[in-house]
Amino acid sequence: MKQPGIHPFSDRFGAVILALLLTLGLALSWGGSAQAAKPAGHAAKPVTQTAKARAAEPWSPPPRPEDAPLPRSARLGGDEDGTPAGRTVKTPGGITESLREIALGVNEVLSGDHRQGAARLAAALPRAGDQADVAAYYQGLGLYLAGDAPAALAALDGLRARASQSFLGRDALYIAMESAARAGRPERTLALAEAWLADPEPSLAPAVWLRAAAAATNLGQRRKAEDFLRHLILDFPTSQSAKAGLALAEKLAATPDAAGGAAGFDPSAPDTVLLRAEALVEKGGAEAALALIPEAAPPGWTPAQAARGGYVRGKALFRQRKPQAAYEAFAQAVAADPSASLAYWARYHQARCLWRSLKAEDAERGVALLREVLAAPTRDDPLKEVAARHLALMLAERGRFAEASDAAGQLKGLAVPPDAAAQGAALGAILRYVTGDMAGAEAELAAFAGRFPDDDWADGARYWRGKALANLGRGQEAAGLWMEVAGGRPNTYYGGRAAAALASLGEVKGQVVASPPGKSPRCPDAAEPPSPAVSAALAKAYALADAGLPALAEMALEFSAKAAPDRADLAMAHIRAAMDGGRRTAAMRTAWRTFGGCLLRGTPAELMPLRDALYPRAYAGEVVTALNGSGIDPDVIYSLIRQESFFDPKAVSGAGAVGLMQLMPETAKAVGKKIGIRPERADLFNPVVNIRLGVAFFRERLAREGSLAAALASYNAGENRVAVWNAGFGGLGEELFVELIPFTETRDYVRRITTNAMVYERLYLGKN
């Protein structure tokens, strides 16, 4: 769950409306699909156009094959660790002649010699052995990039048919689809797109939805095309493919079907425009959403649609960090019909706008609005849940804990999803603890463990129940709970807290009998039974690496490790290859999939093979130098860098933060002025400069805030907000400070860095 904190920006009222409209649209679409399968008199006519006309359409394949979205395997020569375009390629010695030819052919395709590489791979294919999929895929890719789509489609046919058996199979399916589209074969394009969409992957999904829609249109399957376009435009509204799909949807909407019926999906209809705008807001396209919905409702919109438009505008403006303008837009929805459900959702969002201002008087206005929402006569449990939770958080932020606890009490009994119910139960229990009601807190925390045993905060409930029991004088029961948490998942935030609490108990700890250990987790040194399939997978990957194709070797290992998540040998081979290639996120995914239990419960010795990959002390010299004289544990900075960029000096966030410690250029200049340097944005990619500035910034935060938790929170949420938190609940101690951070992102951020620092200390035996 997302522990007590700010509800995601979407609201359940919007989700209900979206679901209803999508259900209606899907019903129409499925009806249309069935209709399209009827005899010719009932189906829409296929769209027939010349190749020249198709090329001018935005939903058609681009003029150059390389301008289409391409999978990673097709881009290794441009932005990965393969051969840069235009360079002469060589292969290492000591490999078989057939593998040498395959490696040369792959590198030729990736470096721009498409036809030559494809021809070399075609010649090598009969002798390719277990590398036949590599030869076939890059032969097809070379032909596709050379503009010979029919030949590419034929070359990829065999590999496409066994896509699930090769690490290049899904990419072959995709390139075959693009080849079919370029070859003007809509029926083949549609079949390939539908096969790919059976297990979609987000980065290429928009392009496939578009290809499927265009192919269905050309085949006269109008309702199916509209269904594909609906998915594309509402699920991926900010993509380039969605823009092209919008043009196709508008064309379909303007053309009556063969029976004279109206469009099943009209992107310009007011209700659809509202859905599109809301989807844009949710996917980071607030500016585009505002362009769709002007301040004054367009002609022909009903009052209800105009009110909804104001509501969606408010959400978009809030996303743009314009709380005053958002407040006024929400007011439009309230004024349209003050007693409507939408109006109460708008009041809830107005309260959130007021919360942004940091002014005490605005907070009071927000509290009043939330109380008004909770007093509404209508039964809307999702709305009551977010309103009661936010009211409790706003009151707690200002130190009004008794009122906050009363507000949290209104969360009980609401019909909401389990994750939302768990958030409310956790918040209510913590507020009981804060107000000194230890018996009530203990009872609610015990109930939490019973109701939500698998929740992310289950260990938190056990830990805080132990704290409540200790305050009630029941130290031995408390120690039993802490031992359960510390023994069950010692490498977690609450595992570390529980271990520290146990260490403070003295004689009581010795009287507690530990629970018997559970099943040992799978760790990197697990003994593996012999497996011919695993041996073959490893041999294939190592051969690719020996042939000078390390990126392909890593892709092959990732595929094999995902297919056999219980094999420690495959997982470790992929983790090493991914780290060598700078793909730390891929390495982390594999580590959690195979060794998740070990990462939570393993001993330092068991975790040692993963240490350098997952918990590196990279740039140690720069970190230690920057910390000189500060007294700050270097492991805190390693943990901070790990969280911010995972040690990637080239990292850039969506907000524009740069480098290892994710500094905004303006912040870096302000800090640099204080320490005597004048950094430009380009300088922030230099690890030495970035760490020096980032550490200086963190030292400044720590000196200002006075505690590690508050300093970390300030690094993430800003000093002004943390000043409010310090004034409201900073006096409760560092542990409760973390629990009461109202922002889910910031609270999780503080916990993760605190936990990582603890794991660093254990793995490196405290030696900095």
Automatic annotation (TrEMBL):
Q: Where is this region: Disordered?
A: 41-94
Q: Name one GO biological process term.
A: peptidoglycan metabolic process
| Residue stretches making up the Transglycosylase SLT domain | 628-731
Keywords from UniProt, A to Z, are: Signal
Superkingdom in the source lineage:
Bacteria
Which Pfam families would you find in this protein's record?
Answer: SLT
List the InterPro entries hit by this protein, alphabetically.
Lysozyme-like_dom_sf, Lytic_TGlycosylase_superhlx_U, TPR-like_helical_dom_sf, Transglyc_AS, Transglycosylase_SLT_dom_1
Write out the GO MF terms.
hydrolase activity, hydrolyzing O-glycosyl compounds; peptidoglycan lytic transglycosylase activity
CDD domains hit by this protein: Slt70-like
Matching PROSITE patterns, A to Z?
TRANSGLYCOSYLASE
Q: GO CC terms for this protein?
A: membrane; periplasmic space
- Report the family membership: Belongs to the transglycosylase Slt family.
Descriptive protein name: Transglycosylase
Give the species.
Answer: Solidesulfovibrio magneticus (strain ATCC 700980 / DSM 13731 / RS-1) (Desulfovibrio magneticus)
